[in-house]
Amino acid sequence: MRRRISLPLKLFLIVFAFVLSCIILISQLSYRYVQKEIRTNDIYYTKQILDKVDQYLTVNFSSFQTILFSVETSVKANINNTEVIKKQLRELYELNSNYVSNLYLINSDLSILGGSTLTRIFDEPLSDRKPLFDAADKNKRTTFVSDPYKSKYSGWTVTMVRYLNGSPFPMAIAIDLDLNAIEETLFKINKEEQMNLALITLSGKIIAGFSENRGPLNIQDHTFSIGEMSAEQILDTTGTSLQLHTKDGKPVSILKKSTEKFNWSIISINDESRLEAALSRLETYYIGLLVAGLVLSLFISFFVAKYIRNPLYALKIKMKRVEQGHLTTTVTMNRNDEFGDLSRAFDRMLQQIVELIRRAELHNELERKLEIQVLQSQINPHFLYNTLGSISNVIRLGQIEKVDVVIGSLISILEYGIADASEKVSLRQELQNVADYIAIQNIRYNRHFHLIENIEEGLMDFPVFRMLLQPIVENSIFHGYNGGGIEGSITIHAYEQGGIVMIEVVDQGEGIQADRIKHILDSEPSDLELKRKRIGLNNIHGRIRLHYGEQFGLQIISIPNEITRVRAIFPAGMFKGDA
């Protein structure tokens, strides 16, 4: 014979599985969320660093422009005094030697007047100055920035050159940038922020940057590649970020940003080691959370099972003794909860049964009354089961303090619902019943379904069918608001227009597709609705049409994910009588 599993053990297993599953699910979702946030924050932080570098370059560009304008003003004022020009070039160079490698004038024969020590001595014409002079001569109103190149006197540099307008003979002002100073700034950021930054031209040339610990980079002849992708191909890709793999298969993340003033790009290449370290710490925390969740699940399951098992076994013993014929059995259970109420109700029921049996022995007529009372008593356990089921939902949600609220609202609904269904009630009574229903749903789902009443004056006493609004409101919660999955407002309008009274229930939930609306009003109740004893919208629609005529009934107007309006249409005159 198959061994039966006791209810406390089933409850223990169910609670254990439920709590542990919830903890695992929440932990997994939290882990994925935090993982995503870490990646997002890492990208955001890197973009902030790139913005700071761009600001640094913009400030430098403005400083270099100021130097060029200062030289232009000085040269124009002393165009015929070469010694004064040389002196001022030297002073400006020494004043800005931390940022520039050289400051000089280029003559049309490609000779120079230099500010640095070397160019003051060696000022002979050089052919590599011709592209600079030609660029300045071609763009006389703007400042030209060269590609990085190897200068004889300044080393690896970039030159900013500007044509000297107003001079009696062709001449250009040039500044060789000290790329070592820019590179030191980038190296400092690389070290402090654990990044790998560099300035890149549009052709993929490295202007400055990339520390000696190059990691995934293959640097060659002032350019680089990652895996099979060259620097120029990386810069040509759309978007500001991309993921690549090195030749060893290791993933790297790349962020790039165009500078505001220079025709360069700032690029950051990271091997995700910092991100992996953070995720490793997160995994340790995640495992610890799962272990704690396992222990917590065992504790909660044991506590809940024990809390149910003791009164359940006491009631079971009492019922067995009653089954053996000991109708005077009393097992006192000093509990101020539903089990205590059930025990006391059971005792009272036994007392009533004993009294009925005693009376049955006195007269045969009492036997018929006893059978009637027994039949009636069969209703009470069913009513008690439904009541405890509703209270159980509240307890399962951990809202013990709201049990009295649920019981009060549930009693009002039951008293209202078990009356004669053909009896008409006022709209005020229907609204109160809806308010009780929403109060239970708010506690049950731990949501706030805000009920808004917009009733035209004089319609509060308008007679309507009993249980007219509650099924429509229930439909809004179960379908519009996804069975309590989301919350929102439910508005009830009532107004008279052209001899017709319209009562509307409006929600801002998921809505109903247009092809389903006619099916909802015309179809028969589903098996699920019959099983749950729920009143469908088609039932309400049919009752109104049967009572008042086919021109009345329900209208459903719905815009998916925006608004759903269920409108009940009645004649404003007197009733014609029940069909």
Automatic annotation (TrEMBL):
Indicate the transmembrane segments per the record.
12-31, 285-308
In what residue span(s) does the HAMP domain sit?
Answer: 306-358
Listed SUPFAM superfamilies = ATPase domain of HSP90 chaperone/DNA topoisomerase II/histidine kinase, HAMP domain-like
Q: Which CDD domains match?
A: HAMP (cd06225), PDC1_HK_sensor (cd18773)
List the molecular function annotations (GO) for this entry: kinase activity
Q: Which InterPro entries match?
A: Bact_2-comp_sensor_kinase, HAMP_dom, HATPase_C_sf, HATPase_dom, Sig_transdc_His_kin_internal
In the bilayer, the protein is annotated as: Multi-pass membrane protein
Going by the UniProt record, its keywords in alphabetical order are: Cell membrane, Kinase, Membrane, Phosphoprotein, Transferase, Transmembrane, Transmembrane helix
Signal peptide coordinates: none
| PROSITE patterns cross-referenced by the UniProt entry | HAMP (PS50885), PROKAR_LIPOPROTEIN (PS51257)
Chief localisation class: membrane
Q: Where in the cell is it found?
A: Cell membrane
Task: Give the protein name, as stated in the record.
Answer: Histidine kinase
